[in-house]
Design goal:
about 150 residues; mainly beta; OB fold (Dihydrolipoamide Acetyltransferase, E2P); extended
Length: about 150
């Protein structure tokens, strides 16, 4: 059995680039940064950032190019793929590892971060009412009583 599955959550390092194949199919490419934080043996905090090349096809590519921008948060689910080509200037074979996305889910947007076509903010944080959760991530309400492992049905 074989499995080629990639799942990454991170922030875009640049605006998506939208192109078209000769067949007319749209292709969007962008890069996603993921961070990893840990403590070394001496207790010092260390941080590492990895960059992932993402490729999206079809209608989803158009949606990604329309709504995601540099700094946006996104979850990408897809498969790993290595492409190769001959570099025209050096004549050497070049390789690129990328994630071909099956699904891209947009992350939460900060409240008041939306802009209209004129570039003005659509709402100010001071105008927030209890019913206006537009642009905020849904929060999870946890039960107040303690959950016991024996109560879980699976």
């Amino acid at each position: 059995m074989y499995l080629n599955k990639a799942l990454v959550i991170g922030n875009l390092t640049r605006d998506p680039e939208l192109r078209s194949l000769p067949s007319g199919i749209k292709v969007a490419t962008f890069s996603l940064a993921t961070n990893r934080v840990w403590k070394d043996q001496s207790g010092q905090k260390k941080e590492n950032t990895d960059y992932h090349n993402i490729v999206v096809f079809g209608r989803q590519a158009e949606t990604v190019a329309q709504y995601l921008k540099k700094g946006s948060s996104a979850l990408v689910e897809g498969r790993m793929q290595t492409r190769s080509w001959d570099d025209k200037t050096s004549g050497q074979k070049k390789y690129r590892m990328e994630i071909v996305a099956d699904r891209v889910q947009f992350g939460p947007r900060p409240f008041g971060g939306g802009t209209s076509s004129s570039g003005a903010s659509t709402s100010a944080p001071s105008e927030k009412t209890p019913d206006s959760n537009i642009g905020e991530a849904d929060s999870i309400e946890y039960p107040e009583e303690e959950i016991k492992a024996d109560d879980i049905p699976f």
